[in-house]
């Protein structure tokens, strides 16, 4: 099995439980010292130098603005060597009543079976409206 195929398999298997509401296995695949970039200029955008920083400064504040958990759906995964591209969608409702229907592409780098870098591409206008 090629490195690309193995990386795709690892990401897909780790993502599968997230579709049932458990993001833990996917986040377990991410290195603690991941370099995670959320594009844009929203309150959740920026460069985060650890998994915990991302959770504390971006994911946590986003989830605090939602009525309940996000429903997440896998779309596709592709890989070329150590680069993996994951497309997925999340839906939910903000406490303001705004529908959160987000489309993501995570461009990732994997080393030794762990995700070490992620750039998250998403609808930043929608994200900014959730934080408004």
State the separation between the terminal residues, measured CA to CA: 47 Å
Individual helix count: 4
CATH architecture level-2 label: Roll
By CATH reckoning, the class would read Alpha Beta
Write a concise synopsis of the structure shown.
The chain has 132 residues and is an alpha+beta fold. It contains four helices and six strands, in the order ααββαββββα. The chain has a single domain, classed as Nuclear Transport Factor 2, Chain: A.
Please provide a written account of the structure:
- With 132 residues, the chain is α+β, with helices and mostly antiparallel strands.
- It has 4 helices and 6 strands.
- It has a single domain (3-131), classed as Nuclear Transport Factor 2, Chain: A.
- It has helices at residues 3-15, 24-29, 51-64, 124-131, and strands spanning 30-38, 46-48, 71-80, 83-93, 99-111, 114-122.
- A 6-stranded mixed β-sheet has the order 2-1-6-5-4-3.
- 21% of the residues are buried.
Defining traits:
31% helix, alpha+beta, Nuclear Transport Factor 2, Chain: A, 42% strand, globular, six-stranded mixed sheet, single chain, 6 strands, 132 residues
Architecture blueprint of SSEs:
Layout: H1 3-15, H2 24-29, E1 30-38, E2 46-48, H3 51-64, E3 71-80, E4 83-93, E5 99-111, E6 114-122, H4 124-131
Parallel strand pairs: 1-6
Antiparallel strand pairs: 1-2, 3-4, 4-5, 5-6
């Amino acid at each position: 099995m090629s490195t690309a195929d193995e990386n795709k398999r690892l990401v897909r298997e780790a993502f599968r439980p997230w579709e049932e509401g458990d993001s833990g296995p996917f986040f377990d695949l991410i290195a603690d010292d991941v370099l995670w970039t959320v594009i844009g200029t929203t309150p959740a955008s920026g460069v985060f130098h650890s998994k915990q920083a991302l959770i504390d400064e971006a994911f946590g504040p986003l989830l605090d603005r939602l009525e309940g958990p996000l429903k997440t759906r896998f779309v596709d995964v592709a890989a070329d060597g150590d680069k993996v591209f994951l497309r997925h969608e999340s839906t939910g409702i903000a406490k303001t009543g705004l529908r959160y229907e987000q489309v993501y592409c995570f461009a990732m780098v994997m080393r030794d079976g762990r995700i070490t870098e992620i750039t998250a591409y998403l609808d930043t206008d929608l994200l900014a409206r959730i934080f408004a």
